[in-house]
Amino acid sequence: MGDVMRELQLKARDHGRLPMQWNKSHNAGFSAEGTQLWMTINRDYVDWNVASQADDSNSVLANWRKMLSLRKEYIYLLTYSSYTPLCEGDTGKRS
After folding, report:
1. What is the pTM of this model?
2. Are 62 and 56 in contact (CB under 8 A)?
């Protein structure tokens, strides 16, 4: 059974999904101390967490908040409209 669980861990879609790192406390504030999480927390949770970024206007958290704010402000534009991506040097001609 251990081999099966190991294979699931290697092939699972959860590699990009980790418990939220809320603060620098045990389990990164995601769950109470003494709770055994089934997913590991990044080792750098003491430095990279919501609490440590909350007051930093240049943090990853602050940038996410800005992006979400723009998404809410321009919801119709971002949801129902279309766009054509332009690359640098693009002449607009298509072959």
Report:
1. 0.61
2. yes
